User: Fold this.
Amino acid sequence: MTKITKVHARQVLDSRGNPTVEVDITTEKGFGRAIVPSGASTGAHEAVELRDGDNTKYLGKGVLNAVKNINEIIAPKVIGLDSNEQEKIDRLMIDLDGTENKSTLGANAILAVSIASARATANENNIMLYRHLNPKANLIPMPMMNVINGGAHADSGLEIQEFMIMPASAETFSEALRMGAEVFHHLKAILKESKHSVSVGDEGGFAPKLQSNEEALEYLIKAITRAKYRPWDDIKIALDVAANEFYSDGKYHIKIDGKKEQLHSGDLTSYYDMLIRKYPIVSIEDPMAEDDWNGFKKLMEKTEGSIQIVGDDLFVTNTKRIRQGITDEVANAVLIKLNQIGTITETLEAIKLAHSVDWNCIISHRSGETEDTTIADFAVATNAGQIKTGSLSRTDRIAKYNQLLRIEEQLGKNAIFAGEGK
Assistant:
């Protein structure tokens, strides 16, 4: 038995200086702590992140109500339960909340307890979290490194939110991390030479003020080449478009060749097709707005499965929306964010559903991150094969990479890296 003896929540800060929820769970022989992240580019269909709304404190972004819900409502119900009974604890909190989107207690409150419970069990058994979640896990994910920030993550003026690199030819995670870091530092040098700012955005990538999304891609190619890697073969590119951010009045407002255009989804599909042909792009996330199912379907038909089409705001880690996406054939991959749905149990169900039809899953951070490394362990435990956790700067991002290095070291010769180099 790993009986829960104490639950305590507090308000702490995330990587953007905004409040978030931290929970400590104490068991008879163990202890677990979890901090939940927070997104900037959030989908309308996500579970509710409870904020206080008191503009006299933290500009209304306080989470003291979520903390109170844990300490006064959730804690009395879970104390005495076995922390190893993950699904039982998660279902109890879902029932306590009683809403479809966790708006009563807050998904941030529920998720913190869910993760802390898992961590307490892992610590009581003196094992890493990934081994607690899946003792047979050995697949280390391919990192998708966000080296140029745009959209809601920076004031660069770029519509596309994330320009990511994937070290495809690496044989190990540690090699992939080195390759990514080398490209990152060469990119910094090239931007400085071109008199661009090398300050970073929310996710640690550079945020230069560029004339177009294509210019950002050109800088990536230059950095990859200067690092003595080959575009297409060694390093590939992934985009998180986050099209919600530039969609209004039924049209997509995006700069092409320096000129602002208003495009319907069919025209936007043609634009992506041009980029895919010109650059080593193998994955596009949220290419259309969160309810533009037809737009997603058009792009799937156009690309014929040649690249990864990822639903984030489209699916919000929700099995109902993923199931619809499978039926309508609008994507072939799902971005997985624990705080979009609010519990470990529901997140695992979303991954299981996606894997049942051979869709890819990408475990993802949020723009407001913390020192918590749960998603690194979670990516390994679920055999996801891909992880998004930001750039090669800011400790809130690097913490996840460092945890994956530890996991790879612990697995030793049993570690399998999800790259193309083996």
